[in-house]
TrEMBL record:
Cofactor binding comment, as recorded: Binds 2 magnesium ions per subunit.
InterPro entries (UniProt xref): UPP_synth-like, UPP_synth-like_CS, UPP_synth-like_sf
Official protein name in the record: Isoprenyl transferase
Organism: Cyanomargarita calcarea GSE-NOS-MK-12-04C
Family matches, as PROSITE patterns: UPP_SYNTHASE (PS01066)
Record-linked PANTHER family: DEHYDRODOLICHYL DIPHOSPHATE SYNTHASE 2 (PTHR10291:SF0), DEHYDRODOLICHYL DIPHOSPHATE SYNTHASE FAMILY MEMBER (PTHR10291)
Summary of subunit composition and partner proteins: Homodimer.
GO biological-process terms attached to the record: polyprenol biosynthetic process
Length: 249
């Protein structure tokens, strides 16, 4: 932890605890460019990205944010070079195994969203174990979006609902937002209040399309591995200046 981060152990004084977002979601972009800038292979950017994510999770715990969701691998990321995909899968598996004990002790509740059945079997086992072992934890809810696509999530919800209608278990006019939400991967979790994307890109990239309907979006030019507590402080400060109207005047 840098000296600057040590100073930011506690919620900074210019942030209001009662106005903190309950749920923060992050699109961790810019790992490859960060690595290139340092003259390193792209994959080293992902490795550094894991450290940034670990510190953000700790920071959310320290400052009182109740839920964090991170976009770790999209349904489109399979199109990357095979060695990068393999590196990401192995890294993910190793980090899960290494960090699980600590997350159990720190009361973190781990969840995964995405098409998990399409992931390598060993990884699926690691995912099931981490969800099972943290199921009764009541601290921060940490959700990892893995092989996740917002459109695919909406489509699979439509299919499941259509199937219920076909079986006569549900009437079409009974389909409302609450019914729909129960069929999303994120069923039972609250929507993100703040969505952060690093590296300056201004896109949602198929992330939490339904759930982000009223999220405040914050974009920073900083590459993900450099997104530290001072950056998070800036994002939260900007969020607290916004007026959230949810369609009202
Ligand atoms: C985007 O940067 C980043 C990713 C596609 C992967 C992010 C994954 C991690 C940080 C690992 C997460 C691990 C766990 C255990 C949750 P990019 O490669 O698109 O960067 P670029 O736009 O500069 O090329």
């Amino acid at each position: 932890m840098t000296a600057q981060q040590t100073k930011l152990q506690e919620l900074p004084l210019d942030l209001k605890r009662e106005l903190l977002p309950k749920h923060v979601a992050v699109i961790m972009d810019g790992n490859g460019r960060w690595a290139k800038r340092q003259g390193l292979p792209r994959v080293m950017g992902h490795k550094a990205g894991v450290d940034a994510l670990k510190d953000l999770l700790r920071c959310c715990q320290d400052w009182g944010v109740q839920a964090l969701t991170a976009y770790a691998f999209s349904t489109e990321n399979w199109k990357r070079p095979q060695d990068e995909v393999e590196f990401l899968m192995t890294l993910f598996q190793r980090v899960l195994r290494q960090e699980l004990r600590e997350m159990v002790e720190e009361n973190v509740q781990i969840k995964f969203v995405g098409n998990l059945q399409a992931l390598p079997t060993v990884l699926q086992e690691e995912i099931s174990r981490s969800m099972e072992e943290t199921r009764n934890n009541r601290g921060i809810e940490f959700t990892v979006a893995k092989n996740y696509g917002g459109r695919q999530e909406i489509l699979q919800a439509c299919r499941a609902i259509a199937d219920q209608v076909k079986q006569g278990l549900l009437q079409p006019d009974e389909i409302d937002e609450a019914v729909f939400e129960r069929h999303l991967y994120t069923a039972g979790s609250c929507d993100p209040d703040l969505l952060i994307r690093t590296s300056g890109e201004m896109r949602l990239s198929n992330f939490l399309l339904w759930q982000s309907a009223y999220a405040e979006i914050y974009i920073t030019e900083t590459f993900w591995p450099d997104f530290d507590r001072s950056e998070f402080h800036r994002a939260l400060y900007a969020y607290q200046q916004r007026e959230r109207r949810f369609g009202k005047v």
